[in-house]
Amino acid sequence: MSIEPTSQVRPVEIEQEMRTSYLDYAMSVIVSRALPDVRDGLKPVQRRILWGMYEGGARAGTPYRKSAATVGDVMGKYHPHGDQAVYDTLVRMAQDFSLRYPLIDGQGNFGSVDGDPPAAMRYTEARMSPIAEEMLADIDQNTVDFEPNYDGRHEQPSILPSRIPNLLLNGSSGIAVGMATSIPPHNLGEIADAISMLIENPETTTLDDLLTVIQGPDFPTYGIALVGKDKAQLRAAYGEGHGRITMHARTTVEESSKGRTAIIVTELPYQVNKAQLIEKIAELVRDRKIEGIADLRDESDRNGMRIVIELKKEGSVQQVKNLLFKHTAMRSTFAINMMAIVDGAPRRLGLKRALELFIDHRRNVIRRRTEYQLEKAREREHILQGLLRAIDMIDAVIATIRAAESAQAALDLLQGVGLVQLERLPANSPAAIRSLAQRNPFTFTEVQARAILDMQLRRLAALERQAILNEYEELIKKIAELEDLLANPRKIDFLIRDDMKELKKKYGDPRRTEIVEADPEDFREEDLVPHQDSVVTLSIRNYIKRMPLDEFRRQSRGGRGSRGAPTREEDAVMKLVVCDSHDNLLFFTDRGKVYHLRAFDVPDTKKQAKGLPIVNLIDLEPGERVTTILPVRSYDRDFILLATRNGEIKKTRLSEFEEVRRNGKIAFNLDENDQLIAARLATNETHVILVSSDGLAIRFKIDDLRDASRASGGVRGMKLRPGAYVVGVETTDDGSDLLIISERGFGKRTSIDEYPLQGRGGQGVKTLNITEKTGNVAACRMVDPRQDLLLVTRDGIVVRTRVSEISRIGRNTQGVTVMRVGEGDAVASIAAFMMEDDGQAGSRRRARPSGNGADPDAALNETLPLGLDVDDAGDGHGGDEAANGD
């Protein structure tokens, strides 16, 4: 049976109908739900929530309003969808871990980074945040178009005026039909600077220029972003609007309350659920995919995130961290796909194009605002002209109004009803009115006439008239400015630039996410570590830690020092070295082995912290003891000098120590009952100095030593008297004076010229007059008067002083008090370093070693502490200030 076509029935192709209907649905989802508008960076539901709160009075500075009331208003007037969908959007706009600059100020439980759900809308309260009000600024000045709501009973803005570039500030994410958007958040200050740059140089500004001010995404959860070498990945993503960047969690290493080594996670990649991350780590430990973790707990509080991962005694910090980054969301990827609605259609945008479209939007807003203000100003000018004329002829105006039989008649007369307009008067009008009309002198417009009739009698006072005149003159100036603004588009651009500067000053804050210019495949943890002058200490019980050098304030010679490390019973500080956080540290042990660490692998702690067992960082054998820590910046130097307790010495090419495994390598083939006690960097031109505990020193040429392999033994360097032992080896590359420090804190500088050049293997000459008051020699160091000296005692007392404050006297003396050492304490170690300005005004000074052939631009790469015991003995110097700590 066939159906004849009528006006109500028309045949269609089912394929065509499905295609058309699907495309209509897809475009509805894309435009009305999933993608933000490039101009205000909002999706329709977000825009409707802000408009509903603005219209309902829930603005910044007003009392909080129940979220349920806001959701009800928005759903009833503008967004006819489920209340939960509206509330979920409102919640996200209030979460400071979801939006870089939250648009809603919430009170109550709005969820957490653990994925906890928010409280029901009847329990929470909300209002607009201050920065959200900037998005609706001037909306009442015809700056944007309004459109009917879904039932035509209300009007809503089709777009917000938005002074802030919200699309880039808060980013956006959404999945539409056949497309998605994923735009990262950015820092307001950087985006404001980029917009200013584009406005000032619109034709010449390139993406590379913009990337000089925009470092990259700035996520609300902090973390670290890897953007490729020279920002290659970031440049590709921002240029095409599509790409990837890798995000890293931030970790530190601490000693836990149980004395274990602990990895502390303080920042996570954007959108990582903390609770799920902890569950994943626990699952990996349970399945034995990660070994070495003893305990896992969440210590996060209102002060910030803190995930504690305690390691077993045999656990390797670096190995566990590598596995965590490999198997968990502590390292994740953010896919950038900058899709937004442009002129009603979805478009993929590069960074520069997104900024240009926002600038175009602001140009249109400011132009419309200016036209609106100009129209209002002209209307007011017209009224003021009428008022001024009326005041000038006030008697005639009053007479006319008094003679009129009604307000409408007075209105007509003030508009100039005269002989030509007599026919407008009723036929039965009194003769007086008809006579007045014949000689009517007025020609006011209707608007002016109504203003005159509404004018209060007090406006007739002289001061009031002057006020009207002043207002009129100011209005004339304002009209001229508005007309000039419309006639000069560049002035509108400069207004946009000034707005950006104002917003930056008002809402700008420091960057949260650290940008690292490294490729994920080539990424090294050291890329995250800033260069920092540091002090590394090691105790007798092999607890090691690293502290910023700045924590130790310089004191006068003879000071008591400050507490540098807590010591337990039978524990004491043994070694101290000053280095850069990126230096290589070579650990030489009494058994003639060498181990390697990067300085930043040593946990960065406060002075009062105990530190971590060094066995958590290097695989020392049972009973093995570190005797020397040698910082090395590069392995391009000539030699390492190695000396033993019994006076043996050898020189070995530094390059043989470049590759050292975690379990160490042989550095010196020791004789029985001998120990390796000191190491020093040297060149071919150096002279070698060995110092013994009984106050003798020998100086000889390095050429007296043959080149020895790493695994070989040494030769006789110094002949020792019974009971004496070598405390250090020095080279003349490091300075002009030999500094000697005794166990009781006495010290002196002696010119190297006072030490005769001898042959290797002799007994040497006197370098310190040993007495019961001074104690034995604890350490030696070649120094320069421009250097600073850092000393530490076995009890962990640290003092920092100038080398120049230590007296320069002869060899056969006992020296002066350098540090006042407490009863039962003794000097443990020293380090000398040079403070050098980096040439930039206002920059801090950096520490570096001097002499020894060091690169003058290298910081601290060869500072060597040679196991010297640092005292506190005093001769009155230092005073109360020195005695009270730093």
From TrEMBL:
Organism: Tepidiforma thermophila (strain KCTC 52669 / CGMCC 1.13589 / G233)
Known role: A type II topoisomerase that negatively supercoils closed circular double-stranded (ds) DNA in an ATP-dependent manner to modulate DNA topology and maintain chromosomes in an underwound state. Negative supercoiling favors strand separation, and DNA replication, transcription, recombination and repair, all of which involve strand separation. Also able to catalyze the interconversion of other topological isomers of dsDNA rings, including catenanes and knotted rings. Type II topoisomerases break and join 2 DNA strands simultaneously in an ATP-dependent manner.
Topo IIA-type catalytic domain residues: 35-528
Lineage: Bacteria, Bacillati, Chloroflexota, Tepidiformia, Tepidiformales
Protein name in the entry: DNA gyrase subunit A
Listed SMART domains: TOP4c
Enzyme class: isomerase
InterPro entries: GyrA (IPR005743), GyrA/parC_rep (IPR006691), Gyrase/topoIV_suA_C (IPR035516), Topo_IIA-like_dom_sf (IPR013760), Topo_IIA_A/C_ab (IPR013758), Topo_IIA_A_a_sf (IPR013757), Topo_IIA_dom_A (IPR002205), Type_II_DNA_Topoisomerases (IPR050220)
Assembly and interaction partners: Heterotetramer, composed of two GyrA and two GyrB chains. In the heterotetramer, GyrA contains the active site tyrosine that forms a transient covalent intermediate with DNA, while GyrB binds cofactors and catalyzes ATP hydrolysis. Heterotetramer composed of ParC and ParE.
